[in-house]
Amino acid sequence: MEVLSIIPVRGGSKGIPGKNIKMLAGKPLVAYTIDASLKSKYITRTVVSTEDKKIKSVAESFGAEVIDRPVELAQDETKTAPVMLQVIDELEKQSYKPDVTILLQATCPLRDEKQIDEAFELFLNSDCDSVFAAFQAGTTHARWRKSPFTGEYECLYDYRNRPRRQDKDLHYPLFIESGAIYIVKTEIMKEVKDFIGYKPEIYLQKNPIDIDTIADFEKAEKIILERNAQTQQKHL
User: Fold this and answer.
1) Helices (H), 66-211
2) CATH class, 3-135+176-234 region
3) Residue ranges per domain, the chain?
4) Sign of the C-alpha dihedral, residues 43, 96, 59, 131?
5) Do 82 and 183 contact (CB within 8 A), yes or no?
6) Fewest Cβ atoms nearer than 10 Å: which of 14, 51, 92, 187?
7) Dist. CA 127–CA 206, nearest whole Å
8) CA torsion sign, 186 to 82 to 143 to 16?
9) Given this model, what pLDDT does residue 171 score?
10) What is the pLDDT of residue 232?
11) Which parts of the chain sit beneath pLDDT 70?
């Protein structure tokens, strides 16, 4: 089985300039995802998609293959699926056709090869066409967000008619995509033009981090340094 992992890494990050190659506990951010992909026992090809020469150089130095991304697919409004499909199209021109495609986002450095392989085994052993990593957010708790346009908070459903805890039949779990792992049959992805198919399964991920802010960087670095210290202690 040919299993392709795609790591989309754009150079034009606005929130944190140069975010994807910013040093995190001694390594560029993207290196953590490249390492996890290369160490996976199921992934057979690891490709970084970028339009940025510096990112390309860093990615290649850590062992990833790089497919050059057209500038038109490296804009602020560019979605991820078209970027992945461009990579698949370029590889098919080389007569390479992956059976399964995995999206690994570079902003999730705490996701390792063990989690990738666990998610892939779920994919293999269930009647699904895709798997994505997520964490459980709760049951009947209302979900709120802050509008970037008005600055006001808004609820995603009618919170004045929320179910009671006693209404057991109305309790249901809520899951939020972590962004760390998406696995999909390649033919399904080409059909739906997305990395989640018709019949997905969820791989439950604990304590995920998707780096978007400096505070996220600091939190991730603290966790990584603590893990490294524990590993060194075990080897003493």
Assistant:
1) 80-93, 113-125, 186-192
2) alpha beta
3) 3-135+176-234
4) negative
5) no
6) 14
7) 24
8) positive
9) 55
10) 78
11) 138-142, 157, 159, 162-172, 235-236
